[in-house]
Amino acid sequence: MFNIIYAQSGGMTPVINNSAASLIRTAQKHSDRINKIYAAKNGIIGLIENRIVDITKLSEKELSLIENTSGGIFGTCRYKLKEDDYETYEKIYNTLKKYDIKCIFYNGGNDSADTSNKLCKIKEYFDYDLICIGIPKTIDNDLPFTDVCPGFPSSAKYIAISMLESSTDLKSMCLTSTKVTIIEIMGRHAGWLTAASSVWKKKESDSPHICLLPEIEFNENKFLELVKYFKEKYGYCTIAVSEGIKDGSGDFVANSKNVDSFGHKQLGGVGIQLSNLITTTLQYKCHCMVPDYLQRSCTHIATPIDIELAKAVGRNAVEYALDGKNNVMPMIVRKNSTPFEYEIVDVELSKIANVEKKLPDNYIKENGYEITKECRDYLKPYVFDANFSLYQDEDGKPIYFELD
Amino acid sequence: MFNIIYAQSGGMTPVINNSAASLIRTAQKHSDRINKIYAAKNGIIGLIENRIVDITKLSEKELSLIENTSGGIFGTCRYKLKEDDYETYEKIYNTLKKYDIKCIFYNGGNDSADTSNKLCKIKEYFDYDLICIGIPKTIDNDLPFTDVCPGFPSSAKYIAISMLESSTDLKSMCLTSTKVTIIEIMGRHAGWLTAASSVWKKKESDSPHICLLPEIEFNENKFLELVKYFKEKYGYCTIAVSEGIKDGSGDFVANSKNVDSFGHKQLGGVGIQLSNLITTTLQYKCHCMVPDYLQRSCTHIATPIDIELAKAVGRNAVEYALDGKNNVMPMIVRKNSTPFEYEIVDVELSKIANVEKKLPDNYIKENGYEITKECRDYLKPYVFDANFSLYQDEDGKPIYFELD
C-alpha cells in the first residue's frame, strides 16, 4: 500500500481535468494497493508549501463534474526547479514524508516534464524512494515522441471553426467594409495550433489564405504582396498568424514591429502589428482577432478524441506506477488515421524534458504560407466531432451553402 | 401574383441565414400568390447594380444547408441611401421594374431599417407601388420596441461562455502568472452584449469582476482602484469591456487612450489600452482577449431560441406582406420569462430607423460596474441551451467542480 499525489502545471488546456478525473478514478479502483490519493495545489508549489488536499473519497458524481470543468481544478503554476536548490527539494521532501507519498503524477508540458525529471533529486539528496510519472498536456502540441498532446485537439478545433466562421463573415462583408482579417494564435515556438487554422483548407480560395508559422522566417515584402494578391483575386484576405513568428534577425515580429515609424514603442501582439502594417501600406481595412486564453480554455468545444486521450494518459499513468515503472510519461502512438487508432506507450522523462517538437518540413508547403496534405491528414482526426454540425463533411467541417 | 426580393444588410449575425431560409420557405408555401423569389447580392447594392439571383426553386435540402451556414449567404453591405439621391433611386427602380418586383424584404439593424424606410421614395419618385418589410437582426441588440434582436442571443452565449472559461483558466493560473484578464466586446453605443458577460454572475467573486458598459462614463482612477481591490481580495481580476466606453469628455477611451505618456499614437482598441494602463500603473500581468468577428459569426454555438426567433421574423415578414402590411418590421414581445414565451408584432419602420436602444438604468447597478438581477433575468432565456453542457444549472451555466 502506498500514497500518491497528483498535480497540474503550466498553461491550462480544455481537457486537463479529464486526465485528473481519470487518474483519480483509476487509483480508486486499485484501493488494494493505493491507499491515499492527494492533490497538490498549484503544482509543485503545493508540494513546496505543503498545500495538499485529500481527494481519495471523491465520488463518481464529483469526478464527472471535474470532467465538466474548465481550467485546472487544483490550480497550476509556472515554476522552474533549480538543479541545486537543496532547500526547495528539502521542503518537497518534508511534504512527501509528512503524507507518506511514494508516487507523484505531474500533469504538464515540456517544463513540467523537466520538473518531474528533477524530482529524482529527492532520492539523491534524501534517499527517499519516489516514483515519478509525467502526464502530457499542452495546447502547443510540442512534446516529442507523442503523436499528439492532450488539449491540443480541442484547441485545434476552436481555431479551425474560428477561422471558418470569421472568414465566411468577412466574405459576406468585404464588398463595402473590412478586406482583411487576422487571427493571432498561441504557440510561440511551434506552429501546430496555427496550422490547425488550415485543417479544412483544400484549395487556394479556402481560408486562411496566408498561414504564418513560427517555423518560417517572416518576410514583410513577400507578406504584403500576398495580402494584395488575395485581396485583388478574391476581394478579401484571411490570415492566421502565430504569436511567435520571427523576422530575418531571429527577433519576434511582435517585438520588432512594435515600434512605429517614429521609433516609438507600440502596444499589442503580432496580430495588431500586422494589422497596422497592412492598413498603413496597403490601405486595406483590417480586423484582428486575438482569442488568447479563449483558445486554451474552450472546454465547451472539446473534441471526443481529445477527451478520450486525456483520460487514457491519466489512466495509464496510474497503471505504469503500479507496474513499477518510474520517470516515464505515457505517450500516444498513432496506429491508423481512418478510422483513428492509437496505443499508449511509456517514454522516459529525461528524453522529453525541455525538448520542443516543431512542425516537420513536410508539413509546410514550399511557398511557406500553406500546410501540406500530410499536415491536414495528421490534424483531421483530432478536430473531428461527429456531433458538431447538423451537416458536415467526412473531415468534420460544417457544410455551408454556396450560391452558384 | 407578385415577385419578391430578399436582401441582407449591415454586420453579420450567427443566425441571419435562418431568417433567410425561413422567409424563402414561407414564400414557397404561398406559391399561389408569390411568383418569383429573388435575392439581391450585397444588400441594397445588388438592387442598385442589378446583381440579382433567382432563388425561387431552392430545395428543402438547400434551405437546411443555408441554416447551417455562417455569415450572410447573399453578401451584405454598409451603405446609407441619401434622401435626395434621385439617380440611385432610379437605378433601384429600374432593377425592380426589370424583375417586376413588388415587395422588398430587408434584413438588417438600425441603418438597414433606415434603408427600408427610405425605399418608399421609389413610390414618390416613380409612382411604383412597393411593399417594404424590414426583418430585424443585430448582435448589438439595440433596436427599439423589440424585446430582442435575432443574432444577439447566440453572440450573448458566446460572450457568456468565453467569460466563464477564460476566468476559470485565470483562476487556475493566477498564483504565479497572469493576474488580470480583459475581454473586449462589440457594441459601440449599447452595452447589451457586454452585459451578457455577467448573465451567470450571482456573487461578487463570480466573473466578470468589473463590467465596463458604454452607458457609464469611464473613470480611470475608480477603475484602477477596483482592479486592485479584486486582485488583492481574490488573487485575480476579470474584466469585460465594451469597445465603446467613453471618458468624461465623451471621447471613446479606445481613441483618447491610444496616446502613450510621450504623446505618441498607439495601436489597438480599448482592451489593449486598459491592459497597458493596468500593467504600467499596477504592474499586474494582464491578458487581453479580442474576439472581434468571432463573437458575431459563432453559428456553431447558436442558441435554440435565437434560431427559433430568426426563423419566426423571416416567416412573419412574408405573412405581413401577404396581409397587405407595408413599411413595418416584425418585432418580438416577451410574454413570459420562465418558461420563455413570446409573440411577434409589427412595428412601423419609421419608428425604428436610426433609433438605438441602450441598457435601461434599472439594468445597471448603482456602482456602475455590475448589472442587476433584472438584467440577468432578461438575458437568461436567450443564452439558455438545454443541450449545451452535460451538467448545467437552470440558467444554462455549466456546473464546475469547486474544491472547498
From TrEMBL, chains A, B:
Entry keyword set: Kinase, Magnesium, Metal-binding, Transferase
GO molecular function: 6-phosphofructokinase activity; diphosphate-fructose-6-phosphate 1-phosphotransferase activity; metal ion binding
Matching Pfam families: PFK (PF00365)
Keyword Metal-binding: yes
GO biological process: fructose 6-phosphate metabolic process
Residues annotated as domain Phosphofructokinase: 3-320
Cofactor(s) needed for function: Mg(2+)
SUPFAM superfamilies per the UniProt record, alphabetical: Phosphofructokinase
InterPro entries, sorted: ATP_PFK, PFKA, Phosphofructokinase_dom, PKF_sf, PPi-PFK
NCBIfam families per UniProt: PRK14072.1
Protein's name according to its UniProt entry: Phosphofructokinase domain-containing protein
